[in-house]
Amino acid sequence: MKIAIVCYPTFGGSGVVATELGIALANRGHEIHFITYKQPVRLELLNERIHFHEVHVPEYPLFQYQPYELALSSKLVDTIKFFGIELLHVHYAIPHAYAGYMAKKMLEEDGIYIPMVTTLHGTDITLVGKHPFYKPAVTFSINKSDVVTSVSENLKQSTLDLFHIKKEIHVIPNFIDKSNYNVDNKECQRSLMANENERIITHISNFRKVKRIPDVIQIFKQIQDKIPAKLMMVGEGPEKEKAEELAEKLGIKDKVVFLGNSNQVDRILCFSDLFLLPSETESFGLAALEAMMHRVPVISSNTGGIPEVNVQGITGFMSNVGDVDEMAFNALKILSDDTTLTKFKDNAEKVAHKFDIANVLPLYEKVYEEAFKTYYKISY
Ligand code: GMT
Question: Are 205 and 211 in contact (CB under 8 A)?
């Protein structure tokens, strides 16, 4: 099948999921066309089955805001026509589902019919999408999608609670493709980052407010008060500076390493002992799943879709949002001795395997078939 995938090309989870899904579909023989404003960060290799088409938005002084949706829908129309693309899969409702629907309607004028699958990722619903400025357009484009998927049961429920949705929402969890990881345990260069006796704690995110970055620093402060430890802070975003200031204020600056955005997440997780994800909300928590796949237990909040990934007392522990004392207490419980840590590491890896791409890819292929059926039933 020839499939166009629209996504954000950045380090965010939705872009990562879209990119890895596209690569896996190409490996299954499908022809994939990524359409977005920059080459997705995890898309390193293009080949005869993986194409990338860049959306340009020319600057025009009349516009205070350059019209990305317009440029995207035009690019979709041209690309779909030129390559004979058969299905459109948009990740993140804003503005992708909206632009996708416009493209579909323009194509229909030329007698070209293409079904659209929309995958909801979280902040397109729980943070940005529900804002009254966007809500009518988000509701409309979800209802106009031929098939809608969400990355967790929790996100499905939030979508139904927040919007007037007339479509069925299929839950397809996020996944991990372990074959993409290039590091095995023997290669972990732990000594570059910490002394032999230190535990390595890691946080990876886009450092937005919703990630509760100060909580990460506070939890680590309590951990390193009790045991030798280092904190790896991976990512870039608006809360980073505040985190650097807080680490300095708490006197732990020399124990916190800010690594910036990284394409070497697998190398960092390879030598990590614990992952912190104290987010305000999280529709799934792909970063936690990636950690677990690398045998890293997780201390997280118990919000949104996280309980569908992190299993209480098995792969780590969950606490109420903001309860940094309990999170630090549980972290110390996991890190207290090697036997306990190894038990949590084994469990994390075992549970993560449930989310292997081999189990998830067929679910997407099934909804693609359904999208065809739904679309042609409506159109003819
Ligand atoms: O978490 C972010 O800030 C990025 C955001 C995105 O759209 O890229 O992540 C959302 O989608 C991920 C992939 O489905 C989920 O794993 C994240 O939990 C979700 N983030 C939130 O709900 C805050």
Answer: yes
